[in-house]
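Q: Hi! First time doing this. I have a protein sequence and I read that you can turn it into a structure. Is that right? Here it is:
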Amino acid sequence: MNRLSEPGFKPLPPRKVFRKRRSRSPWREALFALLNMAVGVGVLVALLQLPARLDSLLVVSKVISTLLKALSRIGEGLALLAAGLAQTFGILLVVGLAIAALLLLANGVFRILRLGIPGLGGVLELPTELARLLLSFVRIRKP
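A: Yes, that's right. Below is the predicted 3D structure, encoded as structure tokens:
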């Protein structure tokens, strides 16, 4: 059935999904780059202060010790297991913060380089053939 022939039918406007992205001003890009770098450096400096306040190897060994004690004494170990899991979560949080800080720092450096060298953003794009190959793997097909 052709809906164009129906009276009162209005075709939908073109989708805005495939519009070209507006380019941001260089000042705004530089501000975001510096902000990313500042946050990354700030988190790394904060993480560097941790060894002065607590011995990281001692903390990790206490985490392992607490988990092993909790597993050996199941009766009273539920509280120790909860403490060990909380400590493990804390260690994972610190590791996650360190990785996030490094990613923010790398992002800021890349943005600064991209502002300084205008063609750098296009150099790091995937080749067309590789992008199509990857798209063919991740595309969801109807059953």
